[in-house]
Amino acid sequence: MSDTSIPALRAEALESLLIEKGLLSEAEIDQTLEFYNERVGPMNGARMVARAWVDEDFRRRMLADGTGAVDEFKFVGGEVQKLVVVENTPDVHNMVVCTLCSCYPWAVLGLPPKWYKDPAYRSRSVREPRAVLAEFGVELDPDKEVRVWDSSAEVRYMVLPERPAGTEHLDERALAEIVSRDAMIGVAVCESSAVRQGL
Amino acid sequence: MSEELELTDELAPPMANGEVLFEAPWQGRAFGMARTLAQAGAFSWDEFRAHLIRIIGLSDRSADDADDYEYYQHFLAAFEAVLAEKDLLDGELLGARLAEFQARPHDHDHDHDHDHDHDH
Q1: Residues A104 and A25 in one domain
Q2: Is A190 assigned a catalytic role?
Q3: Which of A26, A94, A110, B43 gives a 20 to 30 Å CA spacing to A130?
Q4: Is A103 one of the catalytic residues?
Q5: Catalytic residue among A2, A5, A25, A102
């Protein structure tokens, strides 16, 4: 540990004061981090997407009431504010942003990636979503409508990506593995080539 | 539809998610402290978020250069602000502790305890 930058020292000073005050302990901080890093992750969202791809009734329920769909899975912990699931179709591509800060559906996607919090993503997603998508490698048909959803403290959004062709033989579990976090934010599409080849 | 999926159930993490979420350990500590205290009821996440939005808003207006953008510095500032609002943090004590840490030699071993007197 040789991080002597001001924020690093400031965080360390703060931690030492809060521990002395008895407000928290080092172990509690470790547990919280482990929880968000390892136990709550994008796999929760991926499971919901895979279920929606194989179960039409669940898909309808998820689109009607995302929060209720989360409850069906009994995921442990995380923030489950109101979750709204928006569906990609051949005609519509959805992407999610939080223009004000970094609101994000942690319960289903874990911690937000770094770029999600950058001012460039936060402002450009609204102004020029197609350009941003292109930089992520998503080239959309010019006829396809792009909808940008601005998250807030009240509503968090998750994208239900389109199920890629060539995945008809996969079961729900295998399907979950091709659903990337970025696809559920709407800056990637799911590809059947992401199916692992048993390497 | 009441099937319960255990989190211990092994499922490969979705592809292309391998990037590091914290660029430095202190960012993780700041996040961990804020979440731990919010869960313990010291403040609500919305109260924290209000400070974060305000601080990020100030920064967005003043900084043109996105490369200099440091989300977790704002996060830390918002955390300090909500603690101060709740009378859980004394700014003078923090300043003194920070000065003390800054005065440490750079090869200082962080593993020792900090209880001894640094008054030298």
Answers
A1: no
A2: no
A3: A110
A4: yes
A5: A102
